[in-house]
Amino acid sequence: MGQNIKLKELLEIPPLPELHDQLRLLSELDSSAKVEVLSNVRCRGHEFPIYGITITQCPDPEAPTFALIGGVHGLETIGTSVILAYLRTLNQYLKWDGAHQDFLKKVRLVFLPLLNPAGAYLGQRSNGNGVDLMRNGPLESEEPISPLHIYRGHRISPFLPWYRGKQNESMQVESQALIDFVHREIFSSRFSVCVDVHSGFGAMDRLWFPYARKKAFFPNIPEMMAMRDLLDETLPNHVYRVEPQSLSYTVHGDLWDYLYEEQRKKFPDRVFLPLTLEMGSWNWLKKNPLQILARNGIFHPIKQHRIRRVLRRHGALFDFLAKATASSDRWLPKDQQEVERMKVRAQALWG
Fold first, then answer.
1. Which of 32, 81, 77 is nearest to 56 (CA)?
2. Which residue from 28, 48, 104, 151 could staple onto 117, CB 3.0 to 4.6 Å apart?
3. 3.10.450.50, 3.30.1340.30, 3.40.630.10, 3.40.50.2000: which CATH number matches 7-350?
4. Least confident of 19-33, 50-64, 101-115
5. Is the pTM of this model over 0.70?
6. Could you give the residue ranges of the DSSP H alpha helices within the chain?
7. 149-179 burial string, b = 16+ CB within 10 Å, else e?
8. Residue 47 in contact with residue 126, Cβ under 8 Å?
């Protein structure tokens, strides 16, 4: 815990008490779980820690890795809560499930539940400096973006939402913590899947994949197509629309586009699939229009039964993705003919 923040103030940040409960549980388990402070963020006289968690019994640094990231936007704390609900389940499995212990011998599970604790504390999308972390990367959109579309990222003022930060300025502490964590914990893996959990767009849950900055297929589209097929076959009643983010909109400064390109430069023979789970919060608003009056009402369910429904909704997806990551050699395209077939199908579906 940060040195300067008092417990009473900590409890005012919705996801943090639960986060600390889960960290305490992990600390009571065996050496398969490691918790560390990746960085500390200063805001209004307080110091907030950013925690990273790794759970594995596999010593191989190239082992398949499944990662969950949350709380990039301070108003979207439901994403952190969804990750912590899954982590709570894993905590219990670690206590009694022998099969899960065996599973951890061949896969690495990585968590960064709350990247933007200062934003959560302040009740705002951006961090304490007014910077939108998911517009803070160095890559520019390759599609034309009107200056009026500030939601796609801008450098006008930190007093406007979606601010990217100053030109040629170092990335924010939180952004750099995420980049360093992904470099260290994910880039070494021969196959990895990372899910960044958000809310606030549309009336359905979407699984977005790169690119976010241009309307073009990313190089691993055959693997993504194969994963989509596997999801449909394994969870035929799932609720997710799987698609490139660029079908909805393109942006400046997407961190996942940046990290994907970095990984491709360093390890072109390895597969890294960064996904964004965009929970469709407009559905919550439709069912309870009055919650628009709440500060986070567009991004977070208000009524308790809806919160519980969201918390149990995505566990099956995370289990599927973790198992698909661990067993990728059984479903990835096997030869060039299958790769080309996947490209053709992707073009027909998303082109």
1. 32
2. 48
3. 3.40.630.10
4. 19-33
5. yes
6. 7-10, 16-27, 77-96, 98-103, 117-122, 173-185, 221-234, 255-266, 282-287, 304-313, 315-326, 336-350
7. ebebbbbeebeebbbbbeeeeebbbbbebbb
8. no
